[in-house]
Amino acid sequence: MKIKLFIVLVLLINNANAQDYSKIHQKAILVDTHNDFLTKVMQYNFALDSDLRGKTHSDLTRFKIGGLDVQFFSVWSDGNQQSPYAFANRQIDSLDAVIKRNPDKIVKTANVKEILGVVKQNKIAALIGIEGGHQIENSLDNLDALYNRGTRYMTLTWNNSTDWATSAFDDNSKPEFKGKGLSDFGKKVVRHMNKIGMLVDVSHVNEKTFWDVIETTSKPIIASHSSVYKLCPVPRNLKDDQIKAIAKNNGVVQINFNSGFIDPTEKKREEAFMESHKKEFDSLHVAIKNENIAEEMIHVKYKQESDSLRAPFALVIEHIEYVIKLVGVDYVGIGSDFDGIVLPPQQLDDVTSYPLITKALLEKGYSEKDINKILGGNILRVLKANEVN
Ligand SMILES: [Zn+2]
Predict the structure, then answer these.
(1) CA of 26 to the centre of ligand 1 (A)
(2) CA 360 to centroid of ligand 1, rounded, Å
(3) How far apart are CA 273 and CA 270, in angstroms?
(4) Secondary structure, 3-state, 213-249
(5) Consecutive H or E run containing 9
(6) 204 CA to centre of ligand 1 in angstroms
(7) How many angstroms separate the alpha carbon of residue 5 from the centre of ligand 1?
(8) Cα(225) to centroid of ligand 1, in Å?
(9) In which element (H, E) is residue 288 found?
(10) Which residues contact 170 (CB under 8 A, 6 or more apart)?
């Protein structure tokens, strides 16, 4: 009898949790620090305010369904455009046009006070993250101009280095970049970012650049979309001593959802998949002249096969928990990389799937207070700490 009662109670509690999670999720301020939708705009001319189901991970309607409140839109460049600065401005123009058309749904925000005001009105707060560093074209004036257009963080490199900062990818693949960090100008960039209130983002940089940043910055930093090296040893993930240094700096690690960054078995499986479609990929690559788009087309064509490569959802939670166990609940958040990745984890199909994270964290026993920190409180603290007036 007692056992039966216990089972009934457990079932009741589980059911209550299931109902609670969406309430807790919708109530929390959810901040995602990395979404590459604007790159998709440059490639395919998609509009964020149209129905893009089946085409992208994101659109305005789906952001709302997923309970997203604050989005940092990534403005990416690999430096190969005629003017990366002009390319950045075109991406920002495209976001501004969406915002102008939808003032009742999405608003550009400059600081935490404005963010909280916009979220209170049930609208999405938009900010910009410059990814790559090439966009400033080695000019602090350009950095200021991008700040004035709503940029609140800059990722110092992408996979390729700038003249003044070194990427993890280059460090691991090109001997001339091995162990190279920030140049004197790079340190000047970091200090200038501190001065104007722009967050320094260390996702993509190599270890020497990371430690140079830690030594140079006077403000808390972020990794806008990086996961844990110990769980998935890819060069752009963060090692334990780096995670500890970010916590000591009072910054935050925003976990990347990309299957290849959270699941150590994914790379081999994906390589085998691409190898089996190599002929088709090669001819697409020649025809389109864009490696990323050609690769994406292979994934779309062989969707079932491609889906089987996706990491188990539980791994996202494992990466979040790893950071919590290492340094505490105040230093972790979400930087999904949606629309910049081909293979999100299973179940995390698109931006409507964020509530599953809240559900999983609740099931793990985290309190609403801790979940609020992970979903957005931590990054808002760091943003506030970087504000200058
Ligand atoms: Zn990136």
Answers:
(1) 27
(2) 25
(3) 5
(4) HHHHCCCCCEECCCCECCCCCCCCCECHHHHHHHHHC
(5) helix 2-27
(6) 7
(7) 51
(8) 7
(9) helix 278-288
(10) 157, 159, 160, 161, 177, 206
Q: What pairs with residue 273 in β-bridges?
A: none
What spacing in Å lies between the alpha carbon of 90 and ligand 1's midpoint? 19
The two three-digit tokens of residue 299, written as one number: 């994934």
pTM equals: 0.94
Distance 369 CA to ligand 1 centre (A): 29
How many secondary structure helices (H) and strands (E) does the chain include? 19, 9
User: Which residue from 330, 382, 103, 19 is spatially nearest to 220, judged by alpha carbons?
Assistant: 382
Please name the residue that has the structure tokens 């709302």: 64
pLDDT in 10s for each residue of the chain, 389 residues:
566 666 665 555 555 565 689 999 999 999 999 999 999 999 999 999 999 999 999 999 999 999 999 999 999 999 999 999 999 999 999 999 999 999 999 999 999 999 999 999 999 999 999 999 999 999 999 999 999 999 999 999 999 999 999 999 999 999 999 999 999 999 999 999 999 999 999 999 999 999 999 999 999 999 999 999 999 999 999 999 999 999 999 999 999 999 999 999 999 999 999 999 999 999 999 998 888 889 989 999 999 999 999 999 999 999 999 999 999 999 999 999 999 999 999 999 999 999 999 999 999 999 999 999 999 999 999 999 999 97
